[in-house]
Amino acid sequence: MKIIKETIFVLFMLVAMPQAMRAQNYYSTGYVGNIAGELGWDTFSTNTRNGLGLSVSHTSGYAFGQGTFIGVGTGVGISKSFGGAWAVNIPLFAEVQHEFINGRISPMAGLKLGIESEQLKSPRFLIVPSFGISIGRSSIYASLHVASNNGIIVEVDDVAVGALRSVNDHRFHFGYLYRF
Q1: Is 62 exposed, middle or buried (0-12, 13-18, 19+ CB in 10 A)?
Q2: Structural domains counted in the chain
Q3: How many other CB atoms are found less than 10 A from the CB of residue 96?
Q4: In the chain, which end has fewer C-beta atoms inside a 10 angstrom radius, N or C?
Q5: Are the C-beta atoms of residues 170 and 43 closer than 8 Å to each other?
Q6: Do residues 49 and 169 touch, judged by C-beta distance below 8 A?
Q7: CATH code at 167?
Q8: What's the pLDDT tens digit per position in 49-83?
Q9: pLDDT, the chain, mean
Q10: Contact 89, 117 (CB under 8 A)
């Protein structure tokens, strides 16, 4: 029985490994899914929540074959301010990415546009430009997250207040992305 399991495993690896090793970039056409993890730094928030953050996101979309990918995604971000407060951010966004060279290693740039809600309160407009390098199915990048509500809704102690104030967050992130 052990020999049968080992044989099945070896056959699976012989079939799966070439597919896993194949460099998938945005120069091939079709569906592409991305999973990204980021470590961030709240740099200069107007509400003085300076601290560290960690986020995970998933984007599903289409690669058009000329280095360009367009998709939609969501994720979750957790940040801890130096003052001790925790915050959970949930973004919903459209994303465009472009690889500039059709090769195993390529510079890349991206842009996310959407909305972000902190603990399901006060929706904010989100813009995230990024740049980095793609190596095979992976990318390493830096991004600047800018979220602003421009006084849409502000809740204080879970009560909506009439005097609206703008909340702007700026977060600098380093990330790792994997395409499948």
Answers
A1: middle
A2: 1
A3: 14
A4: N
A5: yes
A6: yes
A7: 2.40.160.20
A8: 677 888 999 999 999 989 999 999 999 988 877 77
A9: 79
A10: yes
